[in-house]
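Dear support,

Our group has been running a series of protein-ligand predictions, and this particular one with PXG is the one our PI (initials K.S.) wants archived with full inputs and outputs. We had some confusion internally about which version of the output was final, so please treat the block below as the authoritative record. The input we submitted was:
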Amino acid sequence: MQTPNDLDAFFMPFSASRQFRKTPRLLASAEGMYYKTTDGRAILDGTAGLWCVNAGHCRPEITTAIADQLGVLDYAPNLQVAHPLAFDLANRLRAMTPPNLTQAFFTNSGSESADTAMKIARAYFHACGETERTILIGRARGYHGVNYGGISAGGIPNNRSAFGPLLPDTDHLPDTHDLTRNAFSRGQPEHGIDFADHLEVLIEKYGAERIAAVMVEPVAGSTGVLVPPVGYLERLRELCTQNGILLIFDEVITGFGRLGTPFGSDYFGVTPDIMALAKGLTSATIPMGAVMVTQEIHDAFMQGPEHLIEFFHGYTYSGHPAACAAALATIDIYEHDGLLTRATELGKQWEDGLHALADCPHVIDIRNIGLMGAVELAPIYGAPVKRAFDAFRAAFDKGVLIRTTGDTIALSPPLIIKRDEIDTLFSTLRAVLHEI
Ligand code: PXG
Ligand code: PLP
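Confirmed final output from the archive:
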């Protein structure tokens, strides 16, 4: 494959694109745990693409299912007509997600899932006659994609500041990152259940009857693997239940085995009313997301004359046949290969290997859960994010793909990673941290 010689026309997402255009990093192919660059170098995928290639790259079972489907039914709308695979997939998701989640609404990305989840929450209360319940509570450092609902409930300043005015009736819980009390915690940090109590402050401020939903990632991924403190999610669930507030889990990253259980909800034993999914749903082969809801939420919409549309929301590609085929084949692999619990088997090696980096230069915190890991670095004075970005480039030159957010290195490999590949990942990172 030729390296493109004009990189100017592509307006790149979330990239330092001027730097990129000077020294491009172009991926031409992939298989299993590895990418191959356009100049033929193998790159160990330490980030499952972007937290999404859970089954490993180019699995023939998935790519064949997609190709076969495209040859039979390339596209069918699911508006007023439908195709059977969408129902098959909805039933598979009903069976594998927590038992209270019974219906699946299909989207094409995590951003669409997050916005759909928020729209369902508001419309549910509208349907129930609680028209004052409109406030959506997110969390500082939360990531719920880039659409307007997602950045309004989300808590990443750079993703919000240039795009206002944002959605009204949104507010935020504090984030749970607490280096003073919890640095170098293994798994769930001990301190911080009190961060959940801030919901009581917001309830006091607005009145419980005005708050529609609280939306959080069970583990904040994008902002650097912020693991919920012991008891925190349980406390949020309790406060939501007591106050008639819906709890939305954005499981776009934590879904499909990332934590060593099928969903984050299973890991923490806390069940949401609405769950947003994407990424691992198709192992990222075809864009797709889903929003799971309870029977009660679903049924609230099923009112009025039967010839009328019940929920005025949907996408051209909701439940696209190729995406459904990809998801069904992906879930088959997860179940057949035991991938949804594999992170539990690898957890100890992952945790020990990661925390062994604590003696490397610049490291101020290490966090882990399932097959997620973060190494937080002290920023260079006056040049935040540069240290981590330098690490990213050095790692790529050494044949490992990592992800950085702020001055934190984030890791989340495909769930098929082998034990020696975990060792390679961490030994490369050690060399990188000593070099930069
Ligand atoms: N919710 C969560 C929890 C996510 O992690 C989205 C929603 C949005 O999904 P889409 O498919 O619209 O991108 C995500 C996506 C990073 C990074 O650097 C993470 C994501 C996307 C881009 C970069 O960690 N997560
Ligand atoms: N913009 C226009 C002009 C459209 O007609 C549509 C869908 O019909 C959309 C945006 C939304 O596209 P999608 O359904 O793929 O999200």
